[in-house]
Amino acid sequence: MLSYMDLLRSLPIGLYLEQPITGLHRLDARVKFIWLMSFLVAPLLANPEWRLVLVGLLILITLLARIPLRVWKRQMGWLLMFCGLLFLLSCIMPDGLAVNHQPRLPEQELTFNQSGSTEPLPQPTSYRYVLFSQGPIEITRYSVDLAIRTSTLLFTLVYSTNLYLLTTASEEIAMALESLMEPLRRLKLPVTEIALTLTLSLRFFPLVLEEIQNLIRSVRTRAINWKKLGLRGTTQVWLTLAERLLQNLLLRAEQIANAMQVRGFTSPDQHRVEWHQLRFKAWDGVALIGLVVFWSIRLIWGGAI
């Protein structure tokens, strides 16, 4: 069983794979961001088949990019297990309100055939709304459709974002967003300040996880007997840990601010720092062509927008 610290390391937030350099690493951050937005928007109002295709496409991209198994197996494994559990729960849960209704016609009226016997009429098709019914468990077409929609949507949203953060450095993300938001400067929006804030935020996430891991280690090494503490004592311990975590995070933020001041940082516009040079390459053009094919299939086969 994974420990709490292993679970924290498995979180997709702020995780970046520096080595090895994969094909996704070499793509332009702007192209990858457009692909990410496509994966986030494409499931909306799409049919279940298209949602399953998106899940398979994300897994295929991970395999083709040759990302090491040790990197993504734990994250994808936990996510697939959670989505599978969500799928099963959605299938067996009721698909609507349990309301008893009175039929408009007598029960025997539709069972009479032309000869006057009471044998049931044969069904014109093999369609069945209830796919499985055994005791209190009943699975219908609507519940299966709802289960596919919810589980695939969760997987697509979480894993596509994780894959983007895994193969794109925070500096590249900031520069890509600043480049894509360049037209907003005409509206006098602080585009550079937004990009700088995003960069510092992405850099700060690993520090937050590190502080949480340190506090968890400190609690585990003390072997606290939670049963003897009771509810009041346990609450006091967790409040103390939360206060200590807040103090440590504020101290880290102050250290980052002091480091920027020592290096002569004044403002994003006056103290311009080029973290990463964006370059459009041939593979980026291939990725954009693939994006056109992706949306063409989505509009033709994936369902109405």
Question: How is this structure best described in words?
Answer:
Helices cover 62% and strands 3% of the residues. The protein starts with a helix and ends with a helix. Helix 3 runs antiparallel to helix 6 and helix 4 (48-64) packs parallel to helix 6 (141-167). It is mainly alpha-helical. Strands 1-2 form a two-stranded antiparallel ribbon. Mean pLDDT is 78; it is low at 1-5. It folds into two domains: 14-96 and 128-190 and 281-304, no CATH class; 209-267.
List its salient traits:
305 residues, mainly alpha, 2 strands, 62% helix, disordered N terminus
Low-confidence regions: 1-5
Overall geometry: flat
As laid out across the biggest beta sheet, the strand order is 1-2
Structural class: mainly alpha
Written as H for each helix and E for each strand, in order along the chain, the element string is HHHHHEEHHHHH
Radius of gyration: 27 Å
Beta-strand content bin:
under 5%
Output mean pLDDT. 78
Number of strands: 2
> Ends: how far apart?
43 Å
How many structurally independent domains?
Answer: 2
Main beta sheet strand tally, sense and closure: 2 strands, antiparallel
Helix content: 55-70%
What is the count of DSSP helices, taking H or I runs of 4+ residues? 10
InterPro entries: ABC/ECF_trnsptr_transmembrane
Main location: membrane
Transmembrane segments: 52-69, 76-97
Subcellular location: Membrane
